[in-house]
Amino acid sequence: MQSQDVAQRHAAASTGAPGPAVDVEQAEAALVEHYPRLVRLAYLVLPAGLPRGRRVLTAHALVQRALPRGRRPAPVIPAQSPGRNTDPGYALVRLEVVRTALEAGRPLKLTAWPRRAQLPSLFPQVWGLRLFPRSGGPDELALDQRLAALSGPARAAYALRGLEQLPDGDVRRILRTAGVEQADGALADANGVPAEYPLLDSAEFDPCALQARPTDLMRRRRHTKAALAAAAAVAVCGALVTLPGGGWGADGAAAPVYAQNPAAQAALDPAQLTKVPAGAWKTAARTDFSAWPARGALTGDTALLRRALAVWARPGGTVRVSATPGTQTGGPAGPPQLLYAGDVDAARVVIFHDGLRIARYAEPKDGTAGAALDFARVDGASGAEADALVLGRSDGNTRYLTAPWVTKVAERDLLKPTSGAMDLGLTDGVAAPLAGSALQQGSCTSWNVLQLTDAQGVHLATDLGELVPALLTSGRPGHTEDASGAQALRDWAPFACSLSAERSAGVRTVNAWAFAEQPLPDGSGSGSWVCTRAETWRGDGAVSLAQFRTPGSRYGAVAAKGSDVTACGPRDPHVLAGVLWKSGAGHWYLLAAGGRDTASVRATGGVTASARGALLTARAEQGARADLTGTLTDGSGISGLR
Predict the structure, then answer these.
(1) Nearest to 55 by CA among 133, 129, 107
(2) How far is the C-alpha of 543 from the C-alpha of 532, rounded, in Å?
(3) What confidence tens digit (pLDDT) does each residue in 562-606 have?
(4) Is the pLDDT of residue 641 over 70?
(5) Phi-psi region for residue 278, left (φ > 0), alpha (ψ -120 to 50) or beta?
(6) In 152-277, which ranges are continuous DSSP H helix?
(7) pLDDT at 97 exceeding the cut of 80
(8) For the chain, how far is it from start to end, CA to CA, in angstroms?
(9) DSSP 8-state assignment for residue 575
(10) Which helix (H) or strand (E) holds 63?
């Protein structure tokens, strides 16, 4: 009988006729027998943006509502192998699961009534527990993230291919029957995810093998509904009432509470803050911000810490919020680490670290009006990158908080490489104010940097208007060293003012590489070529500047600039750049230079010339534009930085 039914369905598929009729009992038998697989299919098709608990319950609800109300023809999907795919009842239920799961992922529209699948399910419901699948390994997590980026039809196509082992023709037919107009596009999008189909059978995607955790136990222990209403009223009134003139409520300048759950409450509880003991860094495995102790005279001020945490989670409309590019400004996922709480000039300052970000809260000493919240990325910071943070800026000066392993702090003018460094002193990790350069206006007559001494050596860092100063290095990319040496200081001096172009860009490090010296054609000396490269905390947005300085000039000039390029970086420690230069006699020349591993240089366009080696000098017209190409000693090509 089974082979006869399969033959009938193949014949129906070839002629376009409907499949055999399926009654409710037959569909129910198929649903019960294959319930775990159907729920897994629904879970995979549902949007990954749903909370995992709701996604689980919705998947179960869609499968349980998949029974037909009467006899219905089964969809014609040719069977690939004996088993569930040959059961018309299973094919009918599977189609309904796919159709409703796709509907559940569509956004609600004001112009149309919502479908039942788009509304939260009434059943099943689990009271007092949160249910979610068991976590898989890194492969399963990576696959879940890739599937989350697909559209609903594309996820359905991937699941039908991998979970149901259907060929593309059958997948296309199911999607079209389920109402997908662009079935071919869904299949094409699914091709963008690696065919790791065995992972679909893992616990990560099994809504039937669940973990259970309690919901809010404290709320459930309240005795009466009247007590709940009274507590809510007190909380709302407390959030709205402030003292006259300053906003000194419990949460200060924070917005009203809009959510209550244990994780959020723990993150806002000053008693839950991580406070590292003062000497823990001496035996810590890493020298990063996680080893910093909590310092400052106000680390025990519970009211201040609560206001700072509340504003972080819910900044009010009057709070000034700033963040370096690529830094999230959302509230903490859990209790953060306290680094500092104290008075800094005319403000109270609190600094937190949540493992990925530094958050700095500041409020005036006489109230909370004008509170500020600043963020900076510090993921992966270690060693010298975690040596200092900006506590505050006032009257053109910058005050720093340093790591506990920093033994000395000094101020140095980067434009004067032969001048000494002025000791700033340290008091409980806080340095005396440093005359800042990040916000100076007009001509660049000095560029003061922070010189930090620790067990690893002497490091230079510069304030670029952010919470974390940028580390300065020198040397060939991939073999850089601290910029505190005599030669490094001489290399940096003519080009220090170019650091102003990197303000507020999320810069992590800036390296200066003196890659060439080029004799000038009029015999007046040699020009210096230096490539400075600013790397960011977020990874993209790196900027490389090729700069040229002639003898007697105090500053270098930018000859070429490249954004989001690998030139002058550790991945591509090569550079080629050119500049038009006017001699004292009024003649114009094209000067081009590459690194020491450049075998030849060629100019085309406005200037046509070539030269062996890393240097090219050619007569040119004023305003001429040339395209530069070169060959490296290993035979590979290189283009001019632009």
Answers:
(1) 133
(2) 8
(3) 999 999 999 999 999 999 999 989 999 999 999 999 999 999 999
(4) yes
(5) alpha
(6) 152-162, 168-177, 183-190, 217-220, 225-240, 262-267
(7) yes
(8) 74
(9) -
(10) helix 52-64
Given pLDDT bands bounded at 50, 70 and 90, which one contains residue 492? very high
Q: How confident is the model at residue 451 (pLDDT cuts 50, 70, 90)?
A: very high
Q: Which amino acid is at 456?
A: Q
pLDDT over 50 at 242, yes or no: no
- Cα separation, 264 vs 330, in Å, equals 12
Contact between 38 and 31 under an 8 Å Cβ cutoff? The reply is yes
Residue 249: pLDDT above 80?
Answer: no
Nearest to 363, CA basis, from 374, 376, 378: 374
Distance between CA 33 and CA 54 in Å, rounded?
Answer: 24
**CB hemisphere CA count around 584 (13 angstroms):** 8
Averaged pLDDT of the chain: 84
Q: Distance from CA of residue 480 to its chain's centroid?
A: 26
Can you tell me the distance from the alpha carbon of 565 to that of 557, in angstroms, rounded to the nearest whole number?
Answer: 20
Helix, strand and coil percent figures for the chain, each rounded to 5: 30, 30, 45
Q: What is the dihedral of CA 269, 270, 274, 280, to 10 degrees?
A: -160
Q: Residues for the chain: how many in total? A: 642
CA distance 601 to 605: 14
**β-bridge partners, 610:** 602
Cα separations (Å) of 204 from 51, 265, 302, 621? Answer: 14, 28, 41, 67
DSSP state, residue 161? H
In angstroms, the CA 72 to CA 177 distance is 14
What pLDDT, on the 0 to 100 scale, is given for residue 79? 39
Mean pLDDT of 428-441: 79
Query: Are residues 331 and 251 in contact, defined by beta-carbon separation less than 8 angstroms?
Result: no
SS3 call for 238: helix
Q: Is 594 helix (H, G, I), strand (E, B) or coil?
A: strand
CB atoms within 10 A of CB 229: 10
Q: Please provide residue 212's backbone torsions phi and psi, each rounded to the nearest 5 degrees.
A: -120, 135
Token output for 341: 């709480």
Which residue type occupies 535? E
The helix (run of H) or strand (run of E) holding residue 299 is: none
Residue 539 gets the label, from left (phi > 0), alpha (psi -120 to 50) or beta, of left
Question: Token pair of 3, please?
Answer: 């082979």
Tell me if the bond preceding 124 is cis, omega within 30° of 0.
yes
The encoded tokens of residue 401 equal: 């908080």
Residues with Cβ within 8 Å of residue 283, at least 6 apart in sequence: none
CA 458 to centroid of chain Cα atoms: 31
Instruction: Read off the tokens for 427.
Output: 């008091």
Locus of tokens 């660049």: 444
| pLDDT greater than 70 at residue 75 | no
| SS3 (DSSP) at 24 | helix
Q: How distant, in Å, are the alpha carbons of 57, 206, 417, 487, 528 from that of 525?
A: 78, 74, 21, 20, 10
Give me the residues paired with residue 322 across strands.
Answer: 374
Burial tier of 355 (Cβ tally within 10 Å: 0-12, 13-18, 19+): middle
d(CA 101, CA 67): 14
SS (HEC) of 428-455: CCEECCEECCCCCCCCCCCCEEEEEEEC
- Judging by beta carbons within 10 Å of its beta carbon (0-12, 13-18, 19+), is residue 501 exposed, middle or buried? middle
The separation between CA 452 and the C-alpha centre of its own chain, rounded to angstroms, equals: 29
Stretch (H or E) spanning 346: none
CA distance 621 to 599: 26
Considering only residues 250 and 328, tell me which one the structure prediction assigns the higher pLDDT. 328
The string of pLDDT tens digits covering residues 318-335 is 899 999 998 998 888 889
